[in-house]
Design brief:
The protein is built from twelve helices and ten strands. With 342 residues, it is α/β, with parallel strands linked by helices. Strands 1, 2, 3, 4, 5, 6, 7, 8, 9 and 10 form a ten-stranded mixed beta sheet that branches.
């Protein structure tokens, strides 16, 4: 009888221990899920159902391609799926946009795009074949970049005010080069001329490399391009950057004043952002936006962006939408007023 009672006592204690362990495990799981949800961890959202493809509308090696690859390296492990960068160059990035807008909802596809594709092209191309606002959903704004006004060393000026005076005195030589007509540097150059009350002939090139070659050689006296492209030549003493377009000086060239510091009330930036086709389910868009935001908070990601002389941005989906609205309000009138037609 005593043996029977002892065995029953052991079984009861074991059962109680098992229930306690199960309860503790359940509480632990609930607590972890709550913490993950509070922290906005991707674990709190449904996982992707397959690989993610990131489409870039330019050839490998360019700034937008570098952005995609830096983010993709960290995004794959965070999502737990393969992330593939797919370059689809053509038509200044518009070919990629035309393809991505038609992706079915069952596919996991994002596009990295800049203002040339999402702001300028819809205004100037009549046969654009995509609506930047209707066919795409903003996911995450990830970096900004500035523009630079640079002069050839043969131009006898060292300050923006001196350049403006020189352009007024030498209207026949007051030409400025841009990496492409219809590019943001082109329109920023027009904005600069309007603010300075000087007129200049725009000389369009097929990319930054030939533009800088001619600037260094003195074939074109003035150039507008992205700051990261011009910095190496400025540091080498082959050209002089007179002003940069940010709201504050760039840490990459702290000796260069902003346009505002140089006397013209101008601020202008470009950006890269991730977009999803409008067919993508909203919960998946939020999942991807949160994951990219967390990638952009990573110290190694920040370092790699800065090494590429780009300013990393940590942004929510809502902040990205607001940024795009403000950007279109600033730049659309400039593009329309220019009368530019491809």
């Amino acid at each position: 009888m005593k043996r029977h009672l002892a065995r029953r006592s052991i079984l009861v204690r074991s059962s109680r221990l098992g229930l306690a362990a199960a309860a503790a495990a359940a509480l632990s799981m609930v607590g972890s899920a709550a913490l993950a949800q509070a922290a906005g961890s991707p674990a709190a959202s449904p996982a992707l159902d397959g690989p993610l493809r990131i489409v870039v509308g330019y050839a490998p090696g360019g700034a937008t391609d570098r952005v995609a690859r830096i983010v993709a390296d960290k995004l794959g492990p965070k999502l737990g799926v393969p992330v593939i960068v797919d370059n689809k160059p053509g038509a200044g990035g518009r070919l990629a946009a035309q393809q991505v807008k038609a992706v079915p909802a069952s596919q996991n596809v994002l596009m990295v795009a800049n203002p040339a594709v999402m702001v300028v092209a819809p205004i100037v191309f009549k046969d654009n074949n995509y609506d930047a606002e209707r066919d795409f959903v903003p996911v995450s704004h990830v970096n900004d970049y500035e523009f630079a006004l640079a002069v050839a060393t043969a131009v006898p000026v060292k300050e923006l005010s001196h350049l403006i005076a020189w352009m007024r005195a030498n209207p026949g030589q007051a030409n400025f080069g841009v990496p492409a007509t219809g590019s943001l540097p082109h329109f920023f150059g027009l904005m600069t001329g309007e603010k300075a009350k000087v007129q200049a002939q725009v000389v369009g090139y097929r990319g930054s490399a030939p533009l800088l070659t001619d600037l260094i050689g003195g074939q074109v006296p003035i150039a507008f391009d992205t700051l990261d492209v011009v910095i190496p030549q400025h540091v080498a003493g082959k050209v002089r950057i007179l002003a940069m377009s940010g709201a504050r000086r760039s840490p990459f060239v702290p000796d260069v004043p902003t346009f505002r510091e140089a006397g013209l009330d101008l601020v202008g930036t470009g950006w890269n952002a991730f977009f999803a086709p409008a067919t993508m389910p909203p919960d998946k868009v939020k999942r991807l936006s949160q994951a990219i935001r967390e990638v952009m908070q990573d110290a190694d990601t920040t370092r790699r962006f800065k090494e590429s002389m780009m300013t990393p941005v940590v942004s929510t989906q809502e902040q990205t939408v607001a940024m795009l609205k403000a950007y279109r309000a600033q730049w659309a009138p400039v593009v329309q007023k220019s009368g530019y037609q491809p």
